[in-house]
Amino acid sequence: MVEYFFFVLLWAFSYLKCKLMKKLLFLIIIVCCVNVQVLAQQNPVEGYVITNAGDTIYGTIDYQTRGRLARVCHFLRDGETAYVAYLPGQIAGFRLMNDGVYFVTRTFLVDGQEQTIFAEYLLQGGVSLYRYENTWTNAQYYLVDQDGKVALVRDPGDLSAYTVEDARKKRELALGPALHLLRKSHKAWEQLQDGSITANKMLLITREYNEEYCQADGDCVVFQYDAKKSSTSNYHFSVEAGTFIGALREEGKIDVNAVGLHLAGGVEWFFPRRSKHFSLQLMLELNTISKSGTYSYYSSFSGENVQKEWSVTVAEIGVHMGTNYRFIPAGKITPLIGGGVFLSRPIGKTRDIPYASDYDKENLSDKDDGFELPTNFGIYVGGGVEMKLGKHALQAIFRYELPLLKLDTYTKGLVATLGFLF
User: Fold this and answer.
1) Contact indicator for 159, 197 with CB cutoff of 8 Å
2) How many CA atoms lie within 13 A of 307 on its CB side?
3) pLDDT tens string 115-144
4) Of all residues in the chain, what percent are helix, strand and coil, respectively (each to 5)?
5) Which distant-in-sequence residues (6+ apart) come within 8 Å of 255 by Cβ?
6) From CA 232, how far away is CA 9, in angstroms rounded?
7) Strands 113-125 and 73-77
8) What is the C-alpha to C-alpha distance for residues 128 and 208, in angstroms, rounded to an integer?
9) Sequence-distant (≥ 6) Cβ neighbours of residue 20 within 8 angstroms
């Protein structure tokens, strides 16, 4: 998601012709880069390390991505001020205090070579399950039975382009050791060979196998990881409704202050392994604006002042992408600020416009508007307050939207909303 957001920013930067607009967008890109750099900084979470002698030392763990944690554990002992970096083998493992995430020192076959890593415990029991994830697209799973036999499991990937025979060989190569280790269960065989390999699927297969054969292979389940607490990212759906207060303009025709209805819905992504403060947001929005009044002008045909009514109705659809920062993410109530970019386009507009005279109105109505950009493009900044309601949250947000690249018709102004995060 982060990569897509930066792609949009860079695309917009290359599209701009105006030097001032390029400077403004370049500033936005710099701010976003700073945010991403902050995301890569320490993310302290209460936990403890387990020494090779079996002792437990409590403190704070820098809770980073699975790829980083597989290689090093940065630990701040209670009462001390400096983090210590532990490599695999220097400690037996480390756990978070919420008891849902557990890494241990293990030597496994990683990318074709025996390596000592911090492997993430997904399940500990008669048959244990571990995960090593270098990137979110490169995950390896290890099944270890009570005799210490190890079966490496990797997703064979999309085999639709292979012949039936070649696909069978590749699947056997990827799943053969696991099929042999779980040979007591025909159900496990079927589940392994049906669909892609994921953490949840491997956890289900291993747990059901242990529960069926735990009497012969030892304890059924000693530990099971919490998928939500272990997740690199998670998302929440959000909706908001409120009021648009600002200006409605059409080049050479309309320039009025207006108030309208604002509705929006979308998704907000959180990254607990990097920072609890920052999130990314993608929202689809709809603004509807109506304005009416009267105007007068001198008619050269009648030789007198003429008074007429006018009205304008515009619906505007758009999307905004940006980042939010929560000052007290663990608090019941937290202030937050945000900013980003937006695209918008008017749809279904109808109007009866105030013109200087009937003559001007007739000529303007036949005027060729020429080439138009596909959408308005601009930036937004805002802030507000968020109050947690269990696993959900209620938000009161004020946001100012400023278009940089504009169609003939555009709006700019303040959006005041009440939102709900599911």
Assistant:
1) no
2) 2
3) 999 999 998 888 999 999 887 678 899 999
4) 25, 50, 25
5) 247, 248, 249
6) 24
7) unpaired
8) 12
9) none
Rg (CA), the chain: 30
Which residues are bridge partners to 113 per DSSP? 110
- The DSSP bridge pattern shows strands 93-96 and 128-135 to be unpaired
Alpha helices (H) along 258-379:
358-365
The answer to whether 336 and 327 are in contact (CB under 8 A) is yes
CB atoms within 10 A of CB 358: 15
For 199-234, b/e burial (b = at least 16 CB within 10 A) is: bebbbebbbebbebbeeebeebeeebbeeeebbebe
Whole-angstrom distance, CA of residue 331 vs CA of residue 241: 24
Angle subtended by helix axes 2-15 and 19-39, to nearest 10: 160
Among residues 150, 127, 102, the alpha carbon closest in space to that of 220 is found at: 127
The C-alpha atoms of residue 351 and residue 408 are separated, in whole angstroms, by 14
DSSP state of 93: E
pTM, 2 dp: 0.62
**Cα separation values, 70 from 32, 65, 350, Å:** 28, 9, 60
Rounded Cα distance, 421 and 387, in Å: 10
Question: Rounded CA gap, 40 and 274, in Å?
Answer: 6
Got the DSSP string for 306-327? EEEEEEEEEEEEEEEEEEEEES
48-84 per-position pLDDT tens digit: 999 999 999 999 999 888 889 999 999 999 999 899 9
